[in-house]
Amino acid sequence: MAMPTMTISAIGTIMLQARMSRPRPISAKPLSVMLNDVFADVYARQGFAARELVTRWAEIAGPEVAAHAEPLKMQWPRPVEGQPQEPATLVLRVEGPMALEIQHSSDVILERVNRFFGWSAVGRLALRQAPLSRRERPRRPRGPDPDAVAKVATTLSAVEDADLRDALARLGAAIKRN
After folding, report:
1. Residue 62: helix, strand or coil by DSSP?
2. What is the mean pLDDT of residues 10-34?
3. Who has greater pLDDT, 32 or 75?
4. How far apart are CA 75 and CA 89, in angstroms?
5. DSSP character at residue 82
6. Could you give the CA distance from residue 110 to residue 153 in angstroms, rounded to a whole number?
């Protein structure tokens, strides 16, 4: 029985079809890239040209100031034709008792903010006394109770690997707790 012969172009066509039918890898985009425009619009409505002033506030103002104050918005004066742009007013939300202390250190805060921007972007501070919107870090959940782990471990005698048995006992105790 004779083997059918294929031309080079037919082989190339088959290989191209096989390559095209293969699924391509999924290129996942980071969430920060997808939401960049959304956040940029929100910050722009508050007068912030860049969100770094808000996100890096503790680095810019220092931990002492950042513990009691946070940037709320930047108010830019209307430009007058033929005049240089006036610097903005940075509005800070400040905890009540610390407002006076922040006001006394306003020159230092202005210097740090303008150093961050690289030009004299902010000319004055305005303080609004209000509670800060704390960004607490999520707490790590407690581990399961050792007595509950031991109780679950007694039911896992069929598992020979000790590390696996301990891990399963901790998992079982955590599931029963919740």
Report:
1. coil
2. 67
3. 75
4. 5
5. T
6. 61
The CA–CA distances, whole Å, from 130 to 5, 56, 64, 89, 98 equal 84, 21, 17, 18, 11
How far is residue 166's CA from residue 172's CA, in Å, rounded to a whole number? 10
Determine the pLDDT at residue 20.
60
Q: Which residue, 137, 140, 142, 151, is CA-closest to 178?
A: 142
Q: Of the candidates 87, 83, 103, which has an alpha carbon nearest to the alpha carbon of residue 95?
A: 103
- Tell me the domains of the chain and their CATH numbers: 33-79+86-129 (3.30.300), 146-177 (no CATH)
Q: Are 95 and 72 in contact (CB under 8 A)?
A: no
Q: What is the pLDDT of residues 80-92, one digit of tens each?
A: 888 888 899 999 9
Give mean pLDDT, residues 131-154. Answer: 80
Mean pLDDT of the chain: 82
CA angle at residue 94 from 93 to 97, to 5 degrees? 160
For residue 125, the cross-strand partners are: 90
Per-residue pLDDT tens digits for 41-72: 666 665 566 678 888 899 999 999 999 999 99
Q: How many helices (H) and strands (E) does the chain have?
A: 10, 3
